[in-house]
Write a structure and sequence with these properties.
By secondary structure, this protein is α+β, with helices and mostly antiparallel strands. The protein folds into 2 domains: 34 residues; 201 residues, no CATH class. The chain contains 6 helices and 12 strands. The strands form 5 sheets. The chain has a 3-stranded antiparallel beta sheet, with no helix packed on it. A 3-stranded antiparallel beta sheet has the order 9-10-11. β7 and β8 form a beta hairpin. The N and C termini lie far apart (78 Å).
């Protein structure tokens, strides 16, 4: 009888030990399967440009980005950036300039920011607020890699719904917190195109003497594209922290 009780006690202890070690192992596996870094987006500081405009920012991986398009009308030292309205004048520029889409600041400034040619990006007076700069092509590439590649990164960057984007706004999740908006662009001949359909942002990296890299997303895809264009085209700007 005593032997039977000892045997039963032994099996109870063994059973409890197996259960406890199984739970520990299960916790370990679950932890290892969690996405590294957790939620990629976290709200960072706010910043102010030379005009006094205040911008939200967002931390994505190790980078901190503006979460809104730039809308300054001044360089960092206070010098004004020329506002060029005429299509003919825009098309022959070889110095920094900006405009509002359709030359309508009331309708487009607050939401979409300004459109700048690349000469404004490259100006030594600096268009970005102190402590910030225009992202290089490599910095854009690092963002895309962090968001799991070109085919889905556009969706992770785009604002959701269709209050600003036209239908269908394919794949938009804004999981990054970047809140990419469809500010359209100004072509090298000065014409305005594709508000609510696409957004494009300069990189501070030349492709050739006349062409520069920029990143582009549109409503019909979750892809972010890496294209080159002429320096007197007009695109949005998102600054990145130094």
């Amino acid at each position: 009888m005593k032997q039977s009780i000892k045997t039963l006690f032994y099996f109870i202890i063994l059973f409890l030990f197996v259960i406890s070690t199984s739970n520990v192992s299960g916790q370990s596996v679950s932890k290892n399967n969690q996405p590294k870094g957790g939620n990629p987006a976290s709200i960072a500081e706010t910043i102010k440009d030379r005009d006094g405009n205040v911008y939200k920012t967002v931390r994505i991986g190790t980078q901190v980005w503006m979460a809104e398009n730039l809308k300054t009308t001044k360089f960092r030292n206070g010098d004004p950036i020329p506002n060029v309205i005429s299509n003919a004048s825009w098309s022959v520029l070889n110095s920094g300039a900006y405009c509002w889409y359709n030359n309508d600041d009331r309708a487009n400034k607050v939401t979409y920011g300004a459109l700048y040619n690349w000469f404004a990006v490259d100006d030594q007076r600096n268009i970005a607020p102190a402590g910030w700069h225009i992202p290089t092509d490599k910095e854009w590439a690092a963002l895309v890699v962090y968001l799991k590649g070109e085919r889905i990164a556009g969706g992770a960057l785009k604002e959701t719904m269709t209050s600003h984007w036209s239908d269908p706004n394919t794949g938009a999740t804004n999981s990054s917190g970047f809140t990419a908006l469809p500010g359209g662009y100004r072509a090298k001949d000065g014409t305005f195109k594709n508000l609510n359909v696409c957004g494009g942002w300069w990189a501070d990296t030349e492709y050739t003497k006349s062409l520069v890299w920029y990143r582009y997303v549109d409503t019909n895809s979750s892809t972010i594209h890496n294209f080159s264009t002429y320096k007197n085209s007009g695109f949005s700007i998102r600054c990145i922290k130094d």
